[in-house]
Design goal:
single chain; alpha/beta; D-Maltodextrin-Binding Protein, domain 2; nine-stranded mixed beta sheet; about 15% strand; globular
């Protein structure tokens, strides 16, 4: 009896000790890696490798190509991430819904390198929950060998001279936003009459110029000569301008979408310490400079900007002067009712032949 009891006790002890070590192993593994949910591959491999080498923390990067898809995945909580890239439009919603953690800025001293122009915005007053990562605009790129008139307005996208050679984004916020700006309205308009006018303007454009709708394919079409005037994101536009002397990127005088993507830590993150180290690391001027050079977008890090080449740091279509910046707008998050008005207008535009 005593013998059996000793064996039983020994077995229990072994099981407890084993479970203890399994638990430690799992915890240690979590401490040695972070899960990063990134919008596309908006970071360079050298930076990831440098972070892993310096900290011993492995970065598991997963990418998404739609912010709403990211929101849905994070809000459902089925998958746990430690760092996520969040757009300006989604930031207030995610803060309000308690999906992101308040940051301990003492552990992220490199935030001090950020330009004040990109801090304390309405999307996150005081940057309690986010650190700016990159920013840019939506503008126009054109082939100056073909387009001879001055291009400084959204009007050029309605010029019949360029029929079948105009490229528009196949996204309702961007394309309807351009139409609203052309009309002199806010690209965040919630007025059904203004939205209807923008819809009619885009229907008129379809009759006049038969625009090509797409997203990423625009970056290959214009250098190949398949289009002459494109809506485009500033990073791709400025890169194409550098690579092709016949291409020019501009921000229209009426203003455009100014966007800023930021890094956040989800409320259910498992490795908060690793996430803080990662955000601080990529916020350093050397990393920010390398990332900006790699992906083509402008950096909110003022010290990194000083190290960029003169043709980048002094380019008014990259780092915009105040008079243009004041006419640009960050997208706001629409209510379901307003979004339904836009959805109905967009369906009509896309179904029109």
């Amino acid at each position: 009896m005593k013998s059996s009891f000793k064996l039983l006790s020994l077995s229990i002890c072994i099981m407890v000790i084993a479970s203890f070590f399994v638990g430690c192993s799992k915890t240690e593994k979590e401490a040695q890696e972070i899960n990063f949910f990134n919008y596309g591959e908006n970071i360079d491999a050298k930076t990831l490798n440098a972070f892993e080498k310096e900290t011993g923390i492995k970065v598991n990067m997963e990418t998404f190509d739609d912010m709403e898809a990211m929101y849905n995945k994070v809000s459902r909580g089925g998958v746990t991430y430690d760092v996520i890239l969040v757009s300006d439009a989604l930031m207030p919603r995610m803060i309000k819904e308690d999906l992101v953690k308040e940051l301990d800025k003492k552990k992220m001293p490199n935030i001090s390198q950020m330009d004040e122009d990109y801090l304390d915005l309405d999307i996150d007053p005081g940057n309690k929950f986010s650190v700016p990562y990159m920013f840019g605009t939506i503008g126009i790129i054109y082939n100056k060998d073909v387009v001879k008139e001055k291009v400084d307005s959204w009007d050029i996208l309605w010029n019949e001279k360029y029929k079948d050679k105009v490229f528009m984004f196949d996204t309702y916020r961007d394309t309807m936003g351009a139409a609203l700006k052309k009309l002199g309205y806010s690209l965040n308009s919630t007025d059904p009459k203004e939205i209807d006018q923008a819809k009619e303007l885009l229907l008129e454009q379809k009759k006049k110029v038969n625009p090509i709708y797409g997203v990423d394919n625009g970056t290959t079409m214009i250098p190949a000569g398949d289009s002459d005037i494109n809506m485009i994101w500033s990073g791709e536009g400025l890169n194409l301008q550098d690579e092709n002397p016949n291409l020019v990127y501009v921000v229209p005088k009426e203003g455009a979408n100014f966007w800023i993507d930021s890094l956040c830590i989800p409320k259910n993150a498992k490795n908060v310490s690793g996430a803080e180290k990662f955000i601080n690391f990529v916020s350093d001027k050397e990393c920010a400079l390398r990332i900006a050079d790699e992906i083509g977008y402008t950096t909110p890090n003022k010290e990194a900007r000083l190290k960029q080449s003169e043709n980048v740091r002094n380019n008014p279509n990259a780092y915009m002067p105040k008079e243009i910046m004041d006419r640009c707008e960050i997208y706001t998050d629409f209510t379901k009712e307003v979004k339904r008005v836009y959805d109905d207008a967009w369906i009509e535009i896309k179904s029109d032949k």
